[in-house]
């Protein structure tokens, strides 16, 4: 699926915020994103042969969750960026599944550069070259924006135990409108 816009996610769980953080700390491989591409590359090389969820959760409630597929270099894949807040019956986890800003910046630069080259080729009346450049631009954008890990992250978020639905109140009604004499 193409992943241009963030997908908003909100779920309520019966777990307290502290229990949610403990669950995340227990099940996720600890990884705090750094601006360094080298650090991300080293982390992915270390876990190259395993499927895993990784990310971080802070006491402030901030949560980041990512999914890594074995033998894939997916450091720029989509992740969940959100927070945990306390509710009367447990917690609410809200946020969005989206790509990192670096992917959107790279896609924008790719588009500008290849579009500029295509326009220069049109000005030089090299229409076949302009068409090829436009095709390369679309193929590059498709590869950058194609995303397969959003479903994995959504599935992981669904492992939090949901709030119990409120049971309907039973009322005794002495007035039966079905019994009419007439």
Q: Structural class, from helix and strand content?
A: alpha+beta
Indicate the radius of gyration in whole angstroms. 24 Å
Spatial separation of the terminal alpha carbons: 62 Å
**How many strands appear in the DSSP assignment?**
6
Note down, in words, how this protein is organized.
By secondary structure, the chain is an alpha+beta fold. Helices cover 39% and strands 22% of the residues. The protein is built from five helices and six strands; from the N terminus they run E-H-E-H-E-E-E-E-H-H-H. It is elongated, with a radius of gyration of 24 Å.
Question: Can you summarize this structure?
Answer:
This protein is 39% helix and 22% strand.
Write the layout of secondary structure elements.
Elements: E1 7-13, H1 17-27, E2 29-30, H2 37-46, E3 52-57, E4 62-68, E5 79-87, E6 90-98, H3 101-123, H4 127-145, H5 150-157
Parallel strand pairs: 2-3
Antiparallel strand pairs: 1-6, 3-4, 4-5, 5-6
Helix pairs in contact: 3-4
Task: List key phrases describing it.
alpha+beta, 182 residues
């Amino acid at each position: 699926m193409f992943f241009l816009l963030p997908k908003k996610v909100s779920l309520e769980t019966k777990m307290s915020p502290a229990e949610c953080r403990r669950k995340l700390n227990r099940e996720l491989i600890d990884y705090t994103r750094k601006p360094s591409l080298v650090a991300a590359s080293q982390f992915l090389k270390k876990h190259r042969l395993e499927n895993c969820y990784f990310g971080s959760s802070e006491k402030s409630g901030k949560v980041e969750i990512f999914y890594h597929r074995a033998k894939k270099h997916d450091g720029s894949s989509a992740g969940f960026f959100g927070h945990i807040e306390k509710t009367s019956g447990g917690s609410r986890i809200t946020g969005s599944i989206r790509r990192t800003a670096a992917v959107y910046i790279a896609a924008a630069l790719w588009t500008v550069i290849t579009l500029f080259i295509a326009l220069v080729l049109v000005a030089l009346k090299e229409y076949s070259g302009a068409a090829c450049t436009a095709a390369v631009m679309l193929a590059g954008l498709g590869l950058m924006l194609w995303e397969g890990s959003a479903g994995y992250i959504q599935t992981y978020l669904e492992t939090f135990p949901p709030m119990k639905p409120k049971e309907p109140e039973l009322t005794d009604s002495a007035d039966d409108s079905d019994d009419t004499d007439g």
